Every structure is written in C-alpha cells, then in structure tokens.
Amino acid sequence: MDNKKEKIIHAAIDVFQEKGIEKTKVSDIVKGAGIAQGTFYLYFSSKLSVMPAIAEVMVEKMMEEMKERVNETRLFDKQLEQVVDVVFDITKSYRSIFAMVYAGLASSEYLQQWEKIYQPYYEWMGAFFKQAKAKEVLRDDLSIEPSVKLVIGLIESAAEQVYLYDQLSKEEAVKKKQEVLEFMKHALYKKQ
Amino acid sequence: MDNKKEKIIHAAIDVFQEKGIEKTKVSDIVKGAGIAQGTFYLYFSSKLSVMPAIAEVMVEKMMEEMKERVNETRLFDKQLEQVVDVVFDITKSYRSIFAMVYAGLASSEYLQQWEKIYQPYYEWMGAFFKQAKAKEVLRDDLSIEPSVKLVIGLIESAAEQVYLYDQLSKEEAVKKKQEVLEFMKHALYKKQ
Amino acid sequence: MDNKKEKIIHAAIDVFQEKGIEKTKVSDIVKGAGIAQGTFYLYFSSKLSVMPAIAEVMVEKMMEEMKERVNETRLFDKQLEQVVDVVFDITKSYRSIFAMVYAGLASSEYLQQWEKIYQPYYEWMGAFFKQAKAKEVLRDDLSIEPSVKLVIGLIESAAEQVYLYDQLSKEEAVKKKQEVLEFMKHALYKKQ
Amino acid sequence: MDNKKEKIIHAAIDVFQEKGIEKTKVSDIVKGAGIAQGTFYLYFSSKLSVMPAIAEVMVEKMMEEMKERVNETRLFDKQLEQVVDVVFDITKSYRSIFAMVYAGLASSEYLQQWEKIYQPYYEWMGAFFKQAKAKEVLRDDLSIEPSVKLVIGLIESAAEQVYLYDQLSKEEAVKKKQEVLEFMKHALYKKQ
DNA sequence: CATGAATGAGGGTTCATTCAT
DNA sequence: CATGAATGAACCCTCATTCAT
C-alpha cells in the first residue's frame, strides 16, 4: 500500500499521543513522517481526517494481536486471560488516541464511521464467546452480543484506570487484570 | 460568591459540548458567561486550564444526583437500578466533556488532578457497596474497592456506547441498562 | 513634595532600566511603587509621560553629584578627573534611561522639553570651564559653549562604551577614563 | 538573493524611524515590505530581533560612504573633514535607529552582538589613523585603538546634538562640524 | 507526485485605562 | 485621594492550507 500514507498515519499516532489533539500541528506530523508539508494534503484533507485511518490501523493491530496471542487450544479460562492481556496492552498504547477520536470528532462527520471500524472487533469477540458457550462454560441465559460490548467496555475502562489515570506500576496492573478476570467470570460463567 | 468564575465554568461546559474543544474559542466562552474577554484571564490561565474545574463541577453534580435519586429505603436491586440511571443520565449530559478532559490534556499537567477529583465518587460508591454487603446481598469474597472502580467503568462505558458511539434510541437505552444490571448482578451478588 | 509621585518616578526608573521601554508595563511600575494601578493615573497620563519627570530627576542627581564631588580648591587637572568620574558614574546608572527618553519619544511631544531639562547641566559645565580659562589653563582660542557640549558628549559616549556596549571590567573603566582625560587635555589645554 | 529578508529590514528601518519602536506594529513593517504577516516570522522571531540586522545594514552603509567619500589622495585635514561629514550624514539618517537599538534592547540578548557589528567601522577608522600617523600628522604618543573609539563617539554625539536634540539649522550644523574638527585636531595632532 | 516557501485569516493573550466603591 | 477588579481594543503570532516550481 501507499508508503507515504502509512508514514503519515503512524507519525500522527505518535504526535497525537505525545502532544494531544489541541497542540498537534500538521507540521509536527510531516516532520515525523519525513515528508514535505504539502504532501500531507495529497493524502488527507485535514488534520482531523486522519483520525478514522488511525482508528482502522488500531483495530487491525488489535485483531492481529488477538489472533496471535489467544491460543484456541487452551482452556477458556486461559484464553480469557490472554484476551485481557491484549486489551490492556493495546489500551496502554492507544487508548488516548481512541479518546481523542471521539473527543475531537464529537459532532463531526467522522463519528459515523466509528462503528464500522470497530465491527471486526465485536465480531471476533462474539465468535470467541460463542465457542465458549458451546463448550458450556458460559451461562445459558447469556445473550452474546450485548455481553461482548459490555466486556470490552469493562476491560478497556479497567485498563484506562491503570494506564491513564492512576498510572499504576506493573505489579498493580497485574492485580487489576486479575480483578477484572474475577469480575468477568462471575458475570459470565455458569454457577458451579 | 466567586460569581464570575462560576459563570465561566458553566459557559465553558456549554460551549465545549456544543463545539468540541478544538473549535471552542475563549471569545465564545466569555460571550456565554457575559463577561469581558480579559476577565477570563483573571480566573484561568488558558482555555485548557478550565478543564479541571469543569470536572469538579461534574463530579459534584453526579454526587448530588446520587444522593437525591438513590433511595436508601428501597431494596438494593432497586437502588442499583437507580445508580445506573444516574450514571447514564450524567454520562449522557457530560461524557463528551470527560472525554475531552483527558483527550485534550493527554500528556499534560492537569491529568494528575483527575484522581483527586474523582475521589468523592469512588468513596460514595464504596459506602453504597459496603451497606449492601452488610445486608448480605453481595458475594462474601468481593473486595469492595476494586469492584467499585470496575463497576463505575462498566456502567460508564455502556452509557458511552449508547450515547456516543451508537447513538441509540430511548428503548435501546433502556435495554442496555437492563443488560448492564444483569451483568453486574451476576458479577456481584451471592449465588442463590 | 508629593510622596506617591516620587515613588512612581523612582519605580519607573528601575523598571525601565531592568526591562526596557517595550516590555515595561504600568503594572510593573505600580508594583514597584507599592501603589494601586489606578493611582498611577492620578499623577501621570500615560507610561511615556513619566519620561520628562525621570529626566529631570536625573539631571538634578547629576548636579548634586558634581557640586558634591568636584572640589574647587583642587587643581583643574584634578577637577576634570572628578568631572569624568561623576559623568561615568551617572552614565553607568542612567544612560539607558537617557537613550530611552529620546528613543521612545522621538517624534513625540516630550522631546521639546529635553533641552530645557539639560540646561542647568550645560550651565554648570560652562561656569566650570570659564573659571579654568581665567586660571589660564585652557586654550585662549577655545570657545566655551560649544566645547562644553562636545566634552559632555565625549565623556558620555566613552562611558557608554564602557557600561553599555563592551561591558568592561573596573580596571578597563579606569583605563578608559584616563584615555578620555588625556584626549580632552590635548583638545582643551594650552600647549606648553 | 534573500530578497524578502532585505525588504523586511528596509521596511523596518523606515517604520521605526517614522513611528518609533513602541508604536511600530509588525503589520506596518510587512505592509511596507509588501509581504504577508506570516512571512515576517520566517525570517525574524520578533519585532525586536530585526534590530541587529538593521544595525548591520547601517554599518555597511557607513563603510560604503566612507570608502566612497573619503579621498585618500587629499591632505589628512581634508580627509578628516570628509569623515566628519559622513558621520554627520549617516547619523542624521539613522541615529534614531541606533538609539532605539539599545534603548529597546537594553537588558536584552541582542546587545551582545553590537560590538561585533561595529567592528568593521572601528577597523576602518583604525587603518585611517595609522596611515595618518605614518605621515607624521598625529601625535607620537597617541594610541590608536582607544582614540578611534573616542573620536567616533565624539563625532556621533555632536551629530546627535545637531539632529536629535537641538534640531539645528544647516548653518549651525556646518558650524558644529567645524567645532568638532577643531576640537579633534587639538586632541590628535602634533603640536607645531 | 513531491516540495516547502509563502500566505493571511483568525484567535489567544496582554495591558493601558476606567470607575464604582 | 486611593483602590484594584473589570474592561475590551489592539496586536502578536500561529499554523492550516495553497501553489508555483
């Protein structure tokens, strides 16, 4: 795919993260991408129009990680743990970007595209849950689609607390993951 | 009392919500507050420095609503429902502001203050849970402090999905609330 | 005389010297004077209108020093040395202010007052030279009035070089003074 | 060559002279230079940072005039007269700028550069004096370097008196020049 | 396609000045 | 007389966007 466009997106991710939306200049992005000021406008119409492309890259990244790191041959318990790990890691790297996307774009034309971009993520997680239900791990009365969204929101918000607000240590992050897992299991699993 | 400062904060909330951070001008804020441009700078050093004050106001608002609308004489089930209602309503009104606070201020000096501002919220919810535990509604092995944070994150993220991303209808909002409640109960309650 | 007015003038001298005209704010001056912002305008109509008052203070200061430090009982040689000392010292303290006065006020209404303010200085120096001529120290063909102005200009510019541009050490200042004296003597004295 | 920078400097000279530092707006300068507001900031960081560039231009101008108008084939007496003429003329045109340079920049970072800018001027005058000494016009005991600085200061301050303070007529200017020359000759020449 | 110098509208911020207390 | 909070016009400077090369 187009090399320059990629460079812009990745430079934008870095700069947005470092400086925040408000203080990010197109000139910072092009400097990071190693291209000329004008070249930016051959690929994007404005600073904000990079956002959906960033979101796409991040969801792709998430899916890759899930497919790579969640081992289907293991017990569901273990898989769930791996899912939490991935979400925490991706959130660590990108959550501030997600926040920006809808903070910067609230009441803009780009928010529409959001759901479409997130779709593969929801689908993958849906399939993951279905498979577990088939194995009779999950509650019979659990409806998958809504639960998927709740679970994703739950894990993400826990990760946010760790990485954004409280800026916790590695050990505390591990503890937080265990708490989320515990909480989720009670919410999702069959009672023994 | 500090009448002008109050006016600025409330005008800022309105304008940020209407236009987003990026497009909000200080001149809009002062127009809304009915004061002169220069007066703004007697109270705040910049546009962004209003953010923590806004956050404080919103947490206060949340606490007021909780105290007003969560009826301690009712069953815990009902109270939990009321809590979810309040969080959904406040999120509906202010979540875009919350998003802005950390989107606009990622990597800034203000993020530090965040936890301190949220503290009363966590404390209230902690007390609420303790009371329920005393009534033997909640699981014995539930540790309250971490659960409080998870629950708040869970409800907020559900509310976000309803009001920010998916922009769902009233009926769908009601359904989402029930799903969250269901999810929470399984996660928190004693098994029968 | 009016205490507050005095305070303003002296604070203004300090601040102008420290920050330069451009960056001096009325608020700095009143802070230095220990009075309220509005009080300034009871005594002066604007920032620039303090200038003539400052100039007056400085010429007064100069005259005081001359009368105090130039000893009429000594040889003219010695007296000339003392004159140079005074000019150097006053220049050290105030020359940047003098510069400002006409830099800031070039093409302004205040420049007119300048000559009048400087007048006592020229007169004193004129009397000083006349007395020396009577003692047959100075050249017979020396016309006093123009020489006085040249001498003042010469000493001042030498002092400027020392204190403004080259920022020389104490030793170098002493040397410069000797050079000026030598130069002046050749220009003014009778040939032996 | 660096056409825009040149244009800015020359426009700045004009505007500073017309309005004084305080009242000069960047927008005036760019209007005079026929460029856009933003272009100014590609070449200079602020209004004040043009000052050293202006000083450089003026010293260049001075040197050009000296080389053009001081005729080496004439007697030293005549040459000295021509030097005074040049200094008076340049001072007439630019002294208010010089005043501004250090008035506006007192206590600033730019004052340091001053000596370096003046250097060619001092050097030229030094060479001029050496040549005269070789011809046995000047006193044997005259040390050239310090005298050069004194002479330049003397002529400049005389010119200032004529053009800045006293705003004298053409005839008076001529008379002042003769006085300076007379003064200088006594200070510099061998006794007959 | 790529460049980067030039643009200029626009907004943040300052600060001299006022005036009710 | 003295105050200092409030004012708002004025100005600096930024930075997204363009366009000739």
Automatic annotation (TrEMBL), chains A, B, C, D:
Give the Gene Ontology MF terms in alphabetical order.
DNA binding
Write down the DNA-binding region ranges: 25-44
On whether Repressor is a keyword of this UniProt record, the answer is yes
PROSITE patterns documented for this protein? HTH_TETR_2
Location of the HTH tetR-type domain: 2-62
**Entry keyword annotation includes Repressor:** yes
Keywords of the record, alphabetical order, are: DNA-binding, Repressor
Against InterPro entries, the record matches this protein to: Homeodomain-like_sf, HTH-type_Tx_Regulator, HTH_TetR, Tet_transcr_reg_TetR-rel_C_sf, YvdT_C
What name does the UniProt record give this protein?
TetR/AcrR family transcriptional regulator
Q: Which organism is it from?
A: Oceanobacillus profundus
